[in-house]
Design goal:
The structure is a homodimer of 184-residue chains.
Chain A (H helix, E strand, L loop, with lengths): L1 H20 L3 H32 L3 H28 L6 H8 L3 E7 L11 H4 L1 H5 L2 E7 L2 E4 L12 E7 L3 H9 L6
Chain lengths: 184, 184
């Protein structure tokens, strides 16, 4: 459960910055939705940890587990705060957004065209993360979103991918999406 | 300044998990040290933002900037909390650490041997992040650490690299460090 919380909180931070960069309220709403999931898991984890402590007559593991979970929960709260900026009406300064985009690790958005080698292949088959450094955070397909896709998620023609990675990896990633590069 | 805070806070979270995985107090201490840097930047940013608001007679940008900085500062506080677990004496359960290591994004540690192609090349020259997905978070060189190396940081024989990336990228990364793989 802690690992699940860790993974969701990291996705939330990435999505929060994405919502900011692309001034996208749908992504910001997802961050809020994921916060509910984190909270559920958090309370379940506390309960289980304490039950286990009573069983083992040993508080040590429960104390650490709950401490770590509390820290992770706090990270997810901060992600909500960041996303919340987007849900309000004062837009952040464009210079700020540009500098987030141009930092070493960036977030980019690209449409997959029909002649891309990604089409009909899963993220796992493509080995995108280990071969290009780019992580797909979310996919916009038609009018819905797939947030936090897994290695079994299949890319379709027309998908819009939201990806995070090193700025040097962006061009290759975009060329893969548009079919210009034929090799991952 | 906000981008600097964002980058440091992300490094702090990664280092906090690293200190946990490798039960390493030196890394945990660095997280605490970085917190001081974050706080300094945070107060400077608040001051500058408010000065600018007075100059422009417009509160909007300052409000958003300070809100974002506050959220980032909160993330760095959580990283300190995580690292603090390591600085105390109750070690987390090995099963927990194993599952952090085996999550999709993992943290690994590897020594660079003298016949590695990395030796005497900078991280920028190697394009490690975009070619392998692995980010070097820190380097242990002799008895000191280089935390948050840049693209100009040169790898030396005997360095111990602490890197974060997709679990599928770990083997290639380790083989590059030991000289078994000769091509990034």
């Amino acid at each position: 459960m802690l690992i699940q919380m860790k993974n969701i909180s990291e996705l939330m931070v990435d999505l929060a910055y994405s919502s900011l960069i692309f001034n996208n309220k749908e992504i910001a709403e997802e961050v809020k939705y994921l916060e509910e999931k984190i909270d559920e898991t958090y309370y379940k984890l506390q309960e289980e940890a304490i039950k286990k402590a009573i069983e083992d007559k040993n508080p040590a593991s429960a104390v650490i587990l709950i401490r770590l979970a509390t820290s992770i929960e706090a990270i997810s709260d901060s992600a909500v705060e960041i996303a919340d900026v987007v849900l309000r009406d004062i837009p952040p300064h464009p210079v700020l957004l540009e500098s987030i985009k141009e930092s070493d690790i960036t977030i980019t958005r690209q449409k997959v065209t029909q002649d891309s080698i990604m089409v009909n292949r899963t993220l796992g088959e493509l080995n995108l993360a280990s071969e290009t450094g780019m992580w797909v955070l979310a996919i916009k397909r038609g009018d819905h979103w797939i947030f936090g896709p897994t290695e079994n998620t299949r890319i379709l023609s027309g998908d819009i991918l939201l990806a995070k990675g090193p700025i040097e990896g962006v061009e290759h990633f975009k060329n893969l999406c548009t079919g210009r590069d034929k090799k991952v």
